[in-house]
Amino acid sequence: MAKKESSISWTNFTWNPWMGCHKVSAGCKFCYLYRNFENQNQDAKNVFINTSQLFKPLSIKKSQLIFTCSMSDFFLQEADKVRPQVWEIIKNSQHHTFQILTKRPERIKKCLPKDWCQKNYSNVWLGVSIESMNELHRLHTLKDVPCELRWVSFEPLLGEIFLSKDEIDIIDWAVIGGESGTNGNYRKSELSWFLSLMYQLRDSQTPIFFKQFGTWYHHNHFYLRDWKGEKYCPNFNEFFRIRQYPKIKDNG
Ligand code: SF4
Hints:
Strand content: 15-25%
Order of helices and strands: EEHEHEHEHEHEHEHEH
CATH architecture: Alpha-Beta Barrel
Strand order of the largest sheet: 1-4-5-6-7-8-9
Protein name: DUF5131 family protein
Pfam family, one: DUF5131
Bound molecules: iron/sulfur cluster
InterPro entries: DUF5131
Radius of gyration: 18 Å
């Protein structure tokens, strides 16, 4: 696996062909994109094409896990004109794996390239964010999209999630985490929410990447050692030290 350049623990590299976004659900409330833009006196709702980064994957020779659009949503309407070019770059970068995560799965089908098929785009993992039961419908929408791998980011987890067996069967990889934030801009997470979800997924042998407990949990539990609630004290429950990945094709 190639060298890690992203601070996001479940990826190696982030690529932002465009930046900026609009909030769509409760999970967006403390979006870090908004935090970063506001710190620079920029309006996060002004979506712009990041031309200097557009062709970046083509210049990276070693195979990378690339989180695509960490500072936007890949299926944002404002990106419709440039997205076909980005699909071409993805198709021509078969040595990379592109992790795409959206809160707009209802737009996926109309935004796929004409030559979309598992063979041409086997290097794409398509995922949805689900923060609560209210957003479980995103998983059902994702199910209807033919793709190599479907994943879910349960972050920021805002409540208990109950999955049926059919729903669990859709998920090839699950990332789980509480909300991180500063200055009180984070919400509560409960151990029972994490435990319940992890037991459900573990029983069906779904690969789980437990990312973090979240800032609220950290502030309320002394044994977590960092501000995000990501690191544990040495004797913390081993159950949460789980950072699995789905099987990754080694393309070079
Ligand atoms: S969809 Fe993602 S990037 Fe866009 S506002 Fe919501 S959390 Fe932020």
